[in-house]
Design goal:
Largest sheet of chain A: 2 strands, antiparallel
Oligomer: homodimer
Distance between the termini of chain A: 40 Å
Largest interface: A-B, 43 and 40 residues
CATH topology of one domain in chain A: Arc Repressor Mutant, subunit A
CATH architecture of one domain in chain A: Orthogonal Bundle
Structural class of chain A: mainly alpha
CATH class of one domain in chain A: Mainly Alpha
Number of helices of chain A: 6
Radius of gyration of chain A: 19 Å
Number of strands of chain A: 2
Chain lengths: 113, 113
Amino acid sequence: MADSMDVVFEALASPARRKILDIVKDRPGCSVKHVAGFFEVSRIAVMKHLQILELADLIVSEKDGRSRRLFFNCVPIQMIYDRWTSEYSALWASNLTKLKYRIESREKTHGRK
Amino acid sequence: MADSMDVVFEALASPARRKILDIVKDRPGCSVKHVAGFFEVSRIAVMKHLQILELADLIVSEKDGRSRRLFFNCVPIQMIYDRWTSEYSALWASNLTKLKYRIESREKTHGRK
DNA sequence: ATAATAGGTAACCAAAAGGTTACATATTCA
DNA sequence: TGAATATGTAACCTTTTGGTTACCTATTAT
């Protein structure tokens, strides 16, 4: 269950890959070259990131002539969102509960100073 | 902006660290030893994970005698949630938009075949 | 006081991540 | 056809990550 999302978490862990997601989201159907244009590292490095993103299903692609069209897929993010919200939904009920939670926790523990 | 959350994304990338979050969430104020009890790796390895989680502010702790009390802090996750929801809020408006999005993207691109 | 307990630090090591260059393939354009 | 373009693959290298053992420090319990 959590294991099936490992690749998604890992994919999102890299700033470069998050940047790629933003780029592709911003221009659906763009090419690898277009994405690589935003980076100073080699096109190969960018392609490796794209492979990881495709493995996590955060990017889907299709060949179109000599280029490849890239599309952002938010479904895995939605799944993570659902995972966290179901596990931590009580905490997220309001913006205030996050503070309440810590206060209550510490009260229970007769913490010394 | 995205940079300030790098440590959080990186911290969440590890299944072991997500497991630690669940353990600590489940027993607020628990000790390092308690957490380590759930793992087969050494206590030192677990402590390194805890350090990363503390750096990301996902875990806060306080010394209590010879032991250390650990607390889960969901604020950084809330921040990520806000980041994604603000950036991708249009996609998350309903559970259906994620499909709609891909369809529209592909329509725009006169894809062959 | 001294044993046992809980945690912290240092030095080291293997595997994985992220990058490179070089080369190969397939498609379009002139 | 032949050159330019866009992507794909292979081999390799360096740094980071995640783990280990050994030892040190502080606190509690007998």
